[in-house]
Sequence to fold (422 residues):
Amino acid sequence: MPTIAMPFAGQSLTFDIDERNLIEVLAPAPAQTITDLDGAIANALTAPINQKPLNTLVQPGHKVVIVSDDVTRLTPVDRMIPPLIDLLNKGGIPDHDIVCLIALGTHRYMSEEELITRVGETVWRRIEVRNHCWREEENLVDLGISSQGTPLVVNKEVVEADVVIGLGAIVPHHIAGFSGSSKIIQPGVSGPRTTAETHMLSCSGGDSLLGIADNPVRRDMDDMAARVGMQTIFNVVLDSHGAVAGVFYGEMKAAFTRGVELATAIYGVNYHETPDIVIANAYPCELDFWQSHKALYPAQRMIKQDGTIIVVTPAPEGISPVHTELLDFAGWPSVQIKNGYYDGRLVNGVAAALATAWALVREKAEVIMYSPGIPAADQEKLGFIHADSIESALALAYKRQGDNARVSILTHAPDLLPIAAL
Fold:
């Protein structure tokens, strides 16, 4: 009987599974990571992809905004920002004309201690670093309608900047196809209504957009980024342990395309049988279910109709410390949630959009949850079945699918792109 080990809350979660049930254990492919990260960053900045060097694109008097992802991501921005600042200085931009804006989307605001840790003490002392305060309307500006008909409300400081540089990581993503690039603008520094509409756009089909690089949401995000003047990105691709496997700096679309190629090679995994049960471990998105829900979509891609998904997450901050009201409607059918948003009954559009995506998963497969950080009552409000352990979750799944049910395991589900090789 094989013993399975998965990362869980900084430790290893182990359990046994009968060999007759196990199809395969899927994890990101081993990747050749960069041993000299500072050297790779310097090389990327010296040789931009499809773009002139940064110091030739700026001039004295320009206001520069570096938009960075937040504490929920593993992007090594503390290593990436200092050489960016030095290059901007070389182009005539003093430190006091540079701001680093943390792209929270609709995540909780980061504390000062978290901001310092995120960017590093050197950057904190040199330039202004602050949250994208998405709750305060005075920080936002209305730019009308995007190419896909989305209301475009964006952080005023980004809109008013002369140069905008987006930092982030590229991995498969259920809403945008892949994270990174223009996603740092939407939802990163956009208003909640814009984010809600974009999320709803991603729910227009029955399945997620996971791993589809060219899709309506990505095209919408690219349009939004262009509207605020972001031409340059500085993105990385990480392996499953958070080590950097590739650095991509340059023109937004060209650099993103290069990064997607590497991300697909690392996170794309072939599966060879349609499973009855998928165990989806939420690592590395473990903080709360607002992160951990990303484990659902690779499982949704693989699972048979009316199968069972077991989602595993520690989630020490529960469902979400911000979007607490979503439990009032998260268990509704997808059509009811959409109708509630469009007729004005549900005012938190971002939460409504994600709840719609969760409902679409439930409408394909039963979902069982093992999560010490999420109370059983809250799991039930999500429309999930509570389990006290991974073993009891499997027992519940076998009861529904049969003792001979076939099981696939995703050890790092949020970072996986299942590709059928049937």
Q: What stands out?
A: The chain has two domains: 3-28+272-420, 37-266.
